[in-house]
Amino acid sequence: MNGCSLRFYMHENQKHRGILLYEWLLEQAKKQGIHGGSAFKAIAGYGRHGVLHEQDFFELAGDNTVLVEFIIDEAEAATMLKIVQQDGAPLFWAKFQAEFGIVGSSNPAPGS
Question: CATH classification of 2-99, choosing from 3.40.50.2300, 3.30.565.10, 3.30.70.120, 3.10.180.10?
Fold first, then answer.
């Protein structure tokens, strides 16, 4: 199948409407019937201000980046971007073309 990888980047402690932003984002996708999404925590990184963020044993959680990714079709990506824009959630996003499927299964990917 062809579609896209839609990624959103945020700080792990960033909240929106009283809940963690990555949890809010995953919940919005679930409400739209999107079949899966994942949140990944970065080990280290820096953003537009050039400040290096990395997790230290003595540091409390909160400053590292979380990536939320969906492998979806173009219509679902447009829906997710519209939800985020309308709701005012402050997010950096990126979208890439993707080819995807399931290997090792007798059940083909939906739409193939």
Answer: 3.30.70.120
